[in-house]
Write a structure and sequence with these properties.
- This protein is 16% helix and 53% strand.
- The chain is of the alpha+beta class.
- It has 4 domains: 79 residues, Beta Complex (RNA Polymerase Alpha Subunit, Chain A, domain 2), CATH 2.170.120.30; 94 residues, YbbR-like domain (RNA Polymerase Alpha Subunit, Chain A, domain 2), CATH 2.170.120.40; 88 residues, RNA Polymerase Alpha Subunit, Chain A, domain 2 (Beta Complex); 89 residues, RNA Polymerase Alpha Subunit, Chain A, domain 2 (Beta Complex).
- The longest helix is centred in the first third of the chain and has 44 residues.
- The chain is elongated, with a radius of gyration of 53 Å.
C-alpha cells in the first residue's frame, strides 16, 4: 500500500501536467485570435481601401463668438480634403461636416480669419480646409420694419379666380447687417394656387428680397404670415356639338350627303349667362355652289363675346357631295330574236316603257339606244303567245320595271 506522501506527490504531478496543457492551449488560442484579427484587417483593407480627396460639397462657414451688436455681412463656403473608407465616401453629405470661423476679439471691420472644420462622424478624418481662411466683414446690426407682400407664382385653375386676398401681419421686423437690411425691399409670401378651387387660409414662410427679387440673408420676426385667399368660380364649361354652316346649291344632279366637323364636339368656357345664350355652336359659312365633289375647309367657330374654347377656335368641316339618285322612263321598241325564215310575227304593243334608276348625272346623259328590249321567238309555234321582254341596261343604272310587263306575240306563216 502506497504511503500518503507518495499519493500527494502523484497528485501534484497530475496538476502540473494539467496546468502545462492549459497554458499551452491558451497560448495557441491567443495566437490564433491575433492572426485572425490581422487577416481580417488585411482583407477588409483590400476590399474597402481608404480614399483621400477633396469632398465635392460646399460647406457653409458659421461665425462663432460674434461681437455684440455686430453681424457678418455674408456667409463664406469652403471645401474639405478628407480620408475615409471608399464605401463611407459615397454616404457623405455636407451635413456630416461643420466649418466655423472664430470672431472673438475682432475689433476691425474686415479681417481674414482661419477656418476650423470638423467631421461629425468618427470614420472620417479631415486633412485640410480649402481655402484655409476667409474674409469676414462685420457691420452693425440694424432693425427695420418691412412690408409683407404676396407673390403669386401660380394662378388658380381655369374657371376660378382670386376675388380677395389678405396677409397678416402686413409688416414684419427685419434685422441683420446694416447693408443687407437696407437692401431688403420687402418680405414676400410665395403663393402657389395650382389646382386650388376653394378659398384658403394658412401660414406661409416669409422670404426677404431686394428690389430685383433676389433673396437677402436677414433675420425675419415673425418668419411666417397668415394669408387668406378667397377663390370663386367665375366660368363654367359645357360641351356643345359643332353645327357647320353651308350656303349655296351643289351642281344639278348632285346632293349633299353629309356635313361633318372635326372635332365634332367642343368644350366652351364662360360665365353661366354666356353659355346659356348658346343654342347652336355654328361656324363661318362654307359655300358649296356648283360642287360636284367633296368640299373641305378650315373655318372659325362663331363664339359669343365672353366665351372661349379649350384649344383652337378652328375646326375642319367636310361636306360630302355625291350624285343624287333618281328615276327616268324610256319608251323602247321591242326587238325579236330567233325569227326563222318563212315565219312572220307581230307584237302588241310593239314598244314598252322601261323605268331605270341611278345617279341623276348618268340618267340625264343616258340615251334611249343604250337600252335594248328583246323577246325570243325561237321555236314558237303559230299562234298567240305572251312573252316577257328581256332588258339590257348599262352597268351604272338599275331596272325599276317595264310596262306592260308582257307583250303579245302572234306567230304566223308567210
Amino acid at each position: 500500500m502506497r504511503s500518503l506522501t507518495d499519493l500527494m506527490k502523484a497528485a501534484l504531478g497530475i496538476v502540473r501536467d494539467a496546468f502545462d496543457i492549459v497554458r499551452h492551449t491558451m497560448t495557441l488560442g491567443l495566437l490564433s485570435l491575433a492572426l485572425a484579427v490581422v487577416i481580417w484587417f488585411v482583407v477588409s483593407d483590400a476590399q474597402n481601401p481608404p480614399k483621400r480627396g477633396l469632398f465635392a460639397g460646399m460647406i457653409a462657414v458659421q461665425a462663432v463668438n460674434v461681437p455684440q451688436g455686430k453681424a457678418p455681412v455674408e456667409t463664406a463656403q469652403v471645401q474639405v480634403e478628407i480620408t475615409t473608407d471608399a464605401d463611407v465616401w459615397d454616404e457623405l453629405s455636407i451635413r456630416d461636416f461643420k466649418a466655423t470661423v472664430d470672431l472673438s476679439g475682432m475689433t476691425q471691420t474686415q479681417a481674414n480669419l482661419p477656418v476650423q472644420a470638423a467631421a461629425l462622424r468618427n470614420d472620417v478624418n479631415i486633412v485640410r480646409v480649402v481655402p484655409s481662411s476667409v474674409d469676414v466683414v462685420l457691420e452693425p446690426v440694424t432693425t427695420e420694419r418691412k412690408p409683407v407682400k404676396i407673390n403669386t407664382v401660380a394662378v388658380a385653375p381655369a374657371g376660378f379666380s382670386v376675388t380677395d386676398q389678405k396677409v397678416s401681419p402686413e409688416t414684419v421686423q427685419v434685422s441683420g447687417p446694416q447693408s443687407l437690411v437696407e437692401q431688403t425691399d420687402a418680405v414676400w409670401v410665395d403663393l402657389n394656387l395650382t389646382g386650388t378651387q376653394v378659398s384658403i387660409e394658412r401660414d406661409f414662410v416669409l422670404t426677404a428680397r431686394d428690389k430685383d427679387g433676389r433673396p437677402v440673408d436677414v433675420h425675419i420676426e415673425p418668419n411666417t404670415a397668415k394669408v387668406s385667399v378667397t377663390i370663386a368660380r367665375t366660368e363654367w364649361v359645357l360641351t356643345f356639338p359643332v353645327n357647320p354652316s353651308i350656303s349655296g346649291n351643289v351642281a344639278a344632279g348632285y346632293r349633299v350627303a353629309a356635313v361633318e366637323a372635326d372635332p365634332p364636339f367642343v368644350n366652351v368656357r364662360g360665365p353661366v349667362d354666356v353659355l346659356q345664350s348658346i343654342s347652336v355652336l355654328t361656324t363661318d359659312t362654307i359655300p358649296v355652289d356648283g360642287a360636284e365633289s367633296d368640299v373641305q375647309r378650315s373655318v372659325q367657330l362663331r363664339l359669343p363675346p365672353g366665351a372661349t374654347v379649350d384649344g383652337s377656335t378652328e375646326v375642319v368641316v367636310s361636306v360630302r357631295v355625291e350624285p343624287a339618285q333618281g328615276q327616268r322612263n324610256f319608251q323602247i321598241a321591242v326587238q325579236t330574236t330567233g325569227l326563222k325564215q318563212g315565219v312572220a310575227v307581230s307584237l302588241a304593243p310593239d314598244s314598252v316603257t322601261v323605268t331605270v334608276a341611278g345617279p341623276l348625272p348618268v340618267l340625264n346623259a343616258l340615251a334611249g339606244d343604250a337600252i335594248t328590249t328583246r323577246v325570243d321567238v325561237t321555236d314558237l309555234t303559230p299562234g298567240t303567245h305572251q312573252l316577257t321582254p328581256k332588258i339590257e341596261l348599262p352597268s351604272d343604272v338599275q331596272l325599276v320595271g317595264i310596262a306592260p310587263p308582257d307583250v303579245q306575240v302572234t306567230v304566223s306563216a308567210q
